Amino acid sequence: MKNKLLQTLLISLLYFIPSGTFAWGTIGHRVVGEIAESYLTPKARLAVQKILGTESIAMASTWADFIRSDSTYKYLNSWHYIDFKEGLSESEFKVYLATDSATDAYTKLNFLIKQLKNKQLYAVKKKLYVRLLIHIVGDIHQPLHTGRPEDLGGNKIKLSWFNQLTNLHAVWDEKIIDNQQLSYTEYTKAINHTTPAKVAKWQHQPIADWLLESYTIVGKIYDEVSEPEKKLSYRYNFDHIETVNSRLLKAGVRLAGIINQLFG
Ligand SMILES: [Zn+2]
To answer: What's the whole-number mean pLDDT along residues 88-115?
Structure first.
């Protein structure tokens, strides 16, 4: 009896360990950074290099997650995502963004772009803002970062991934990506295939459209896991890997677009 109680307690504790609140895991973010690097103009590449020093875009991409343990940066926690209510139409969605004044990934991304246009910005600030820009463009392409507030973007939706207890957010942050067993450079090589026409189209679309894509995808993701404690494994990977790869690729291409515009 006691053992059973202890077991129940341990299992419920496992459920409460916050995992996957980081957005794309380390590999996902680095893939986005590595892809972006390949679409930079020579001038933009040089300018970013100067700002980041010895840090590559891929390595700079995870800084915003790594500093989460430091309370100095607690104010950045809400910069990683933007919550939306369920079932918004495209026009409702766009109206919401147009009037958005919350501290979220959308308003802060716009803030960063505006700040980085200022040529007088101090070097330390510039580095901070570039690191954040790289990270947030990645984050908003992770569909669960445009999820619903009531379940914390899928963090409260418990399920299993290859018999391991986790949550929906973590599956999309890192479980599917880790399942490919590729380093970030191998991963980039595998998925970084596009055409100049696609690059131009993706970079031309406004940020609101990037978010709408994520929001449309996340609606389907939620529908699929509507039954409690779903068991996900091979089939889920098979059904969603293309979506994951396409989000990473678009994020990288669009990040390069912003950097080229700012510094190219
Ligand atoms: Zn993040």
So the answer is: 97
